Amino acid sequence: MSTQTAAQQRAEAKASYNAFMEGCPSRQLLDRISDKWVALILAALGSDGPHRPGVDHEDGPRSMRYSELSRRLAGASQKMLTQTLRSLETDGLVTRTVTPTVPVTVTYELTGLGLSLNHVMAGLKDWAETHMTDVLAHREEHHRRAVEH
Asked: Which of 32, 39, 63, 138 is the most exposed place for a label (fewest CB within 10 A)?
């Protein structure tokens, strides 16, 4: 039996990931990244989404303070935002930087891994915004037919 290096073990594990298999850890990752708050946090940190009128912004990723993220993600509770940011940090998608000021300044920023996911998630967000009218029409038609029967 030969001994494998850590890189060889990672390569072998990567080749064996299959989200259709019940015990595959990629299922947990898919569950996490399919959350709406994850998609919106990635979009916000990737500088997508609404911007304050009259305020210049850069196109591309940037760091944001917790309070700014909270304002941009209307409807996200403090608990949900905190939990989601922690999970993204645990997975290596976001970095959290604490600056010892009074009060303490905490900023969040996409990592390289988070940026690669942001490109995928931005496409999903754009698709949802582009096709929402069609989806709403189908929902209305489905509801109308269900009521008729």
From this structure: 138
